[in-house]
Amino acid sequence: MINEKNSKTIKKEKSKSSIPGAAPGQALGYSLQYTRLTAMLLIAEPGSWCSLEVLDDVVEEKNTGVKHLVQSKSTLGSNPISDRAKSLWKTLFNWLHLVENGHVEPDQTIFEIYVSRPVDGDIASAFSGARNNADALAALQKARLLLWGSEPEYLLKSDLSEDIAKYVNTVLAAKDSTLISLIKNLRLMFGSGSPQSDLEEIIATHPVSASKIEDIANYLCGLVKRDADKLLEQSLPAILSRDEFHLRYAAYCRRVDRETILTSFAPVPTKDEALARMPEVFVQQLDLLDLEFEDKLEAISDFLMASADRTIWSKMGEVDEKSFDELDDELTRTWKNKQRANGVEHRTKSGVDQGLMLYAKCMEHKAVIQAMSAPPHFIPGCFHRLADTQEIGWHPSYLELLRIKTKAVV
Prior knowledge:
The chain has 410 residues and is α/β, with parallel strands linked by helices. It has 17 helices and 8 strands.
């Protein structure tokens, strides 16, 4: 039972949790990492890999060995790069630790502090603006002067608050040569205040329709989070391939945003390759219709080329894998409807004649994939793939006749 004392306690706790910028700020800071990971995958160089919470919040490792470390900072609460911000000095402390322990080579690393909106910070700005050793040393001396005071006394050092003293003192006491290498490769990056809007702006620079940008952004954010989470669930590092991401990105864009013609890349099979497929189930189905030899060779060619195109288009990112499943479902429904109508219209005809009519109707069927027209061999070839697994058939009694045919061969 909740008494008056407990009720007051609950109200007090609720009021604490509803303080603006408290829990929401922490949640936004964490979710921002996934948004930055998605943005980095969009702009990363071909052949690179991007990770979450491996060396840093987000990291891009290029195939040249250059690393791009990102510390993402939300500004929903306090300024994360002010001169005495704990988040700034903890970031520098962590980067220094990585350098001193040989995890990164500073001259082969970009150290980026990403802040979700523009804010001021004299020390951080001075570090970010340094491009050579002299500028970096000057920025370092400025930081020591502001936080420690003049050397050698460093009278301001004792005034540092307890929550930042450990980080500030460790960083500023490090070797100048190490700090100079780090500082001249440090960059500040500011967002607009809405990381999601910034992500959409990146997508807007690509050849996609403006009306589809939000949908694509939603898909990509979900894709990245799911892929990263799946790895983490297996106790594996969340490291994602930029190239695989772009293949799936391109396939999804084509699925929702483009209407064009798919180009076949499948080689035309040789006669020997076609003859080797004569025992296949889909060819046996054609045997049940007494189809001509040349018609069977054409069917085998359609089957092989369609199967090859499905693999090629998927690897190239031309078509999303899910679209092939949707196409197979559509073709199966089409076959079922045509078979039903065929049985009613031609019930007095022989099974072979009914099968030939159904086969001809299906071979004339037109279908699109992700709003794209397919080459002439593709839809017939996909019907043959379904016939090969006996999901569909041409003769009204195809399942029974195939069983008899199989027993006879055995």
